[in-house]
Amino acid sequence: MKPRESVFRYSGSEAEMTDHAAALIMAEAWRAVADHGYFSLVLAGGNSPRPLYQKLARGVSTALLRQYNLPLPEGCSSSKSGLLELPESTWLFQGDERALPPSHPETNYRMIQETLLRHSSIAPVHLFRMAAEAADSREAAKAYEATIRTFFLKREPQALQDFPAFDLVLLGMGDDGHTASLFMENPDALQEKSRWVIAVEAQNARPPGRRLTLTLPLINHARNILFFTTGKKKAELAEQIFRKTEKNLPASLVKPLNGKLFWFSAQP
After folding, report:
1. φ, ψ dihedrals at 137, nearest 5°
2. Closest by Cα among 40, 35, 19 to 75
3. Reduced to 3 DSSP states, what percent helix, strand and coil does the chain have, rounded to the nearest 5?
4. What is the domain range of residue 150?
5. Residue 248: helix, strand or coil by DSSP?
6. Which regions of the chain are under pLDDT 70?
7. Is residue 98 within 8 Å of residue 209, measured between CB atoms?
8. In which element (H, E) is residue 65 found?
9. Do residues 27 and 65 make contact, with C-beta atoms less than 8 angstroms apart?
10. What is the Cα–Cα distance from 38 to 267, expressed in whole angstroms?
11. Is 156 strand, coil or helix?
12. CATH code at 105?
């Protein structure tokens, strides 16, 4: 069983949680660059992370890191405005995606572009898109897994065994307890042991339909996992999962093997 200090829970206003989560991500980004030369970040979709992505794109003050007792990593540099920005060596991955064209307003890809990528110094080619709209979704899942594998083989071949270790995986959670595109209605997806990316049929999702998603074992190998949720209902559910009174929902199955788990619950 993992030591309790590897799981952290924070709650407060949306502004407070956005600031705190952004500061933590920024600190981890620069720590990762100092440690191994790049920062690998998996991005959540949906609406909840929009303010967080906008904050990351604008930059985070060093004072904010000090406020939350986050160490300022060596080698980090601020912009002309005095704000810390995500390192140029940040590489972005999607945690899940809907089977829609990339320009569709309901794609996670478009949301990420509009809120984060377009307003940051990260090169557009540093975002790896899930082609969930492909006619053969299984082949699309294999292709995205191959993209992840190629990325890590180029950078840390000696560290890549069964699963790579992303520096940070950002997740959201639905009112039903799903995370990424891992739903209770897809028990086989929740039992996946070897694949990194899979295609699922999510008929109870909004909107319903085919999706691609990272799998639980890939997520659980991350160095850091951060849930960012908004709303009272999700905050209550996050508290139940944190206290282990709710153990059967997809989000409750997120348990990093050697990393840290952070729960941020923002409420009006």
Report:
1. -70, -30
2. 35
3. 35, 20, 40
4. 7-73+81-198+213-232+242-267
5. coil
6. 1-5, 77-81, 159-160
7. yes
8. helix 62-67
9. yes
10. 33
11. coil
12. 3.40.50.1360
> Considering the domain boundaries, does residue 167 fall inside one?
yes
Split into its structural domains, the chain has a count of 1
Residue 112 lies in a domain: yes
Do residues 247 and 42 touch, judged by C-beta distance below 8 A? no
- Cα 148 from Cα 163, distance rounded (Å): 10
Query: Which tens digit of pLDDT belongs to each residue from 39-64?
Result: 999 999 998 999 999 999 999 999 99
Is residue 43 a contact partner of residue 49, using CB atoms and an 8 Å limit? yes
DSSP state of 45: -
The reply to whether 205 falls in a domain is no
Q: Does residue 152 lie in a domain region?
A: yes
Beta bridge partners of 242: none
171 neighbors 44 (Cβ within 8 angstroms): yes
Query: How far, in Å, are 45, 101, 113 from residue 104 at the CA level?
Result: 14, 5, 12
Report whether 223 contacts 188 (CB < 8 A): no
Q: Which two tokens stand for residue 173?
A: 């959670």
Alpha carbons 195 and 149: distance in angstroms, whole number = 11
Count the helices and strands in the chain (H runs, E runs): 8, 12
Of the candidates 168, 202, 193, 217, which has an alpha carbon nearest to the alpha carbon of residue 49?
A: 168
CB-count exposure of residue 77 (10 Å: 0-12, 13-18, 19+) = exposed
User: Tokens 């912009």 map to which residue?
Assistant: 79
